[in-house]
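Curious: explain these tokens?
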Amino acid sequence: MPELPEVETTRRGLEPLLRERRILHLEVRDARLRWPVPADLPARIAGATVRGLRRRAKYLLLDTDATGLLLHLGMSGSLRHCAPDTPLRRHDHLRLMLDSGSEIRLHDPRRFGCCLPLDPAPDGGPDSHPLLEGLGPEPLDADMDGDYLFRRSRGRRGPVKAFLMDQATVVGVGNIYATEALFLAGIRPGRAAGRVTRAEYRRLAGHVKAVLAAAIERGGTTLRDFLREDGSHGYFRQELQVYGRAGEPCRVCGTPIRTRSVGQRASAYCPSCQR
């Protein structure tokens, strides 16, 4: 699944190509995404001028001077900027045609993504789409720090990794980056969230920010068939410390990396470095 760094990398790549461009047409080649693309969406967005492309959690928000778009890449989707004569692929479900003569295509083999209308927030307030309700702070925001995580975790008996991946706690910290941040903070993924100390949460928050920032800079981890907006791959995966390295020696102490199931997800950790 494209994680937050992949989505943010896509946003940064596409935003300058979209800003102030007029949308000529939205072609829906297959409306059967996770939620069906509304039949009237092409008519609602035709002629609109793009004002910007934002990200909230793993959603992309295309703002226009009229109706915008709420986009999600699902399990293996991607958005690609290309020329109109670029050969269509089997799972290119949407084509957003621009007055620049180029287009944006949503490629989604599993059809777990979405493309839904996004109406402007009244009076410039927060976005009120149902899919955006109940989300926690962004992991790179200043208010997502160790003190915040410590307060939220009090009384929690569930594993700290599941707590960190809960979208109501903080958005966009997926399996890969939670695994890596917990290793760097020296915290085992199965420890009860309520038993992690304030000092440990301060370390963890710092490592979450550092790992995500580094992954964004390097274009993500390139899991399976994820592609960036220009069709290239990210290259952060080679820097992973524990994720996907079960049985291999820890890069710090040499102890073999182990895995255990946490929240129905395989979680790699070093039994010596993490407590």
In short: The longest helix spans residues 198-218. The radius of gyration is 20 Å.
